[in-house]
């Protein structure tokens, strides 16, 4: 399940999130609060695609058999992360700072309770 092949350097995460946010906002079919809520709901769709890929990678649907790979699962998980970050950017232009603070809180909370 783990890929250890070398990859080219990643594009700047937050610059890419900003670019995707700008692209999506340029032609938003639904404006205002409803548009923001729909952007957040997109996460549910993406999580469902992760579930579908896991079921497909494990062959849990006897009618369909194995329909996905673990690489598909990885790609779908990445789509969830990207969608979440774009949704966060939709809520606030300070998405990078908000995410950084929350990540630090989770790290501190998690590691503080970890056995030593």
Task: Explain the layout of strands and helices.
Elements: H1 13-26, H2 32-58, H3 70-91, H4 95-112
Helix pairs in contact: 1-3, 2-3
Question: Could you explain how this protein is built, in words?
Answer:
The protein has 116 residues and is mainly alpha-helical. The chain is 70% helix and 0% strand. It is built from 4 helices and no strands. The protein has helices at 13-26, 32-58, 70-91, 95-112. Helix 1 (13-26) crosses helix 3 and helix 2 (32-58) packs antiparallel against helix 3 (70-91). 7% of the residues are buried. The model has no long low-confidence stretch (mean pLDDT 92).
Report how far apart the termini are.
28 Å
Shape category: globular
Helices and strands, in N-to-C order?
HHHH
**Strand fraction band?**
under 5%
Radius of gyration, in Å, reads 17 Å
The chain-level structural class is mainly alpha
Detail the poorly predicted runs: none
């Amino acid at each position: 399940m783990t890929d250890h092949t070398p990859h080219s350097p990643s594009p700047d995460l937050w610059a890419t999130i900003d670019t995707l946010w700008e692209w999506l906002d340029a032609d938003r079919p639904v404006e205002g609060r409803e548009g923001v809520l729909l952007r957040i709901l997109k996460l549910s769709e993406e999580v469902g695609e992760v579930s579908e890929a896991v079921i497909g990678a494990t062959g849990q649907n006897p009618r369909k058999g194995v329909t996905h790979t673990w690489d598909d699962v990885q790609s779908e998980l990445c789509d969830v992360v990207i969608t979440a970050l774009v949704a966060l950017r939709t809520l606030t232009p300070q998405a990078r700072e908000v995410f950084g603070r929350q990540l630090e809180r989770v790290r501190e909370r998690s590691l503080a309770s970890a056995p030593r």
